């Protein structure tokens, strides 16, 4: 490999013989500089750029961990591999907590060092690619939707692409996930942005009035119709009609809606005159639309007319990293609205918000924040200010151990795994819980992958929390990859 394309490695090793051996391991693929003391290493770091630092713990003038601490302060993105012949679990955990990328015990062979360096450089390249991508594409907010997580980035991209089209959009998601905000963004991204956006909640309108609400009526069409009234279809002409909770629409009205979508024409209630409109349709439901079709509550032909571009709004628990981003935005808005001085959430509240499942999604989070702002005074929100419902949830969801603050998802995965493995019996499913028992390696794989995800891809840090060595994780990952290839 040409030297100008080889990654730079600084090897800090006070033993000349060991330094020579390690240099021979690396020199074919890396550009290596050697330092025998901490002071010499710091001098080299000031004069040259390196991709990785490999340092012994015991040096003549300082500890390799001191070099690690300095690099974490001054060059936090530079990976550091710690090596020592006097390793212990305490030292491994200490090094990982200080920010080491990996820890290798002496003696080690060329293959072990090559795997470690290769994994670190691959991760570094991937992180650089992700950072470049995020600079261009990642957004914390899109129209009125807030969220920087990957699921929300995907939603934003679909909206941008679908917005330019006249194709119907079918939005699914649990109650409170922001389906109406999604529909507003679709309208705002479309060429119809300056035209009317009419939203109609099919679940909030009595069955005997919903036809009139959509298609309008003429004077005297029914009892109480003292004047003619334009329906949502006519008012939305040239723009967008959003039908929320469309699964609540009666079957007989679904056939009339299908005709409107197919032909662009409709007849107001009590009239014989046919009207023509130009409408872009967006609909939403918190149900499974295919199941509604299969069970006869939703017309199949209407489903396929509307389900041209599907958009799924993720539940708040599926985009955990967005919780505090949304909470802080809501707090700023409500504090201003109520003329309060709240500035943020203390760490206990933030940890609890991240661990809570939020069954009501963003709507529930919004209600909680507003409740706190209205009923309390102060600068910071603490646990005592949360509504009684959340306080009771907290008492029943108490967590202990290192995962309390570092990796709640890992603890959940471990709890599920322990629960599944605890249901011992001759059959695959237990009689009471009817819960499937998965093979141990699948549960182990899920726990490890979740730990790595919660540690932002830092394998050694995940290993430290799981109380195993990073090499164990690398070995298992290799086994899983080989199994997939086979």
The rounded Rg comes to 30 Å
Question: Order of strands across the biggest sheet?
Answer: 2-1-3-4-5
Secondary structural class = alpha/beta
Mean pLDDT: 85
Amino- and carboxy-terminal Cα gap: 31 Å
| Count of runs of 4 or more consecutive helical residues | 21
Just name the CATH architecture of the largest domain.
Answer: 3-Layer(aba) Sandwich
Give structural notes.
This protein has 486 residues and is an alpha/beta fold. It folds into four domains: 3-134, Response regulator (Rossmann fold), CATH 3.40.50.2300; 144-312, Rossmann fold (3-Layer(aba) Sandwich), CATH 3.40.50.300; 316-396, Orthogonal Bundle (Helicase, Ruva Protein, domain 3), CATH 1.10.8.60; 407-485, no CATH class. The protein is built from 21 helices and 16 strands. It has helices at 16-26, 38-47, 64-74, 89-98, 110-137, 150-163, 179-188, 207-215, 232-235, 251-263, 289-294, 300-306, 323-338, 347-355, 361-375, 388-396, 403-406, 408-422, 440-454, 459-466, 470-485; strands spanning 8-12, 31-35, 52-56, 80-84, 102-105, 141-142, 145-146, 169-172, 197-201, 240-244, 265-266, 275-276, 280-285, 309-312, 344-345, 380-381. Strands 2-1-3-4-5 form a five-stranded parallel beta sheet, with helices on both faces. A five-stranded parallel beta sheet has the order 9-10-13-8-14. Helix 1 links the parallel strand 1 and strand 2 (31-35). Helix 10 (251-263) packs across helix 12 (300-306) and helix 19 crosses helix 20 (459-466). The protein is elongated and about 100 Å long. The two termini are 31 Å apart.
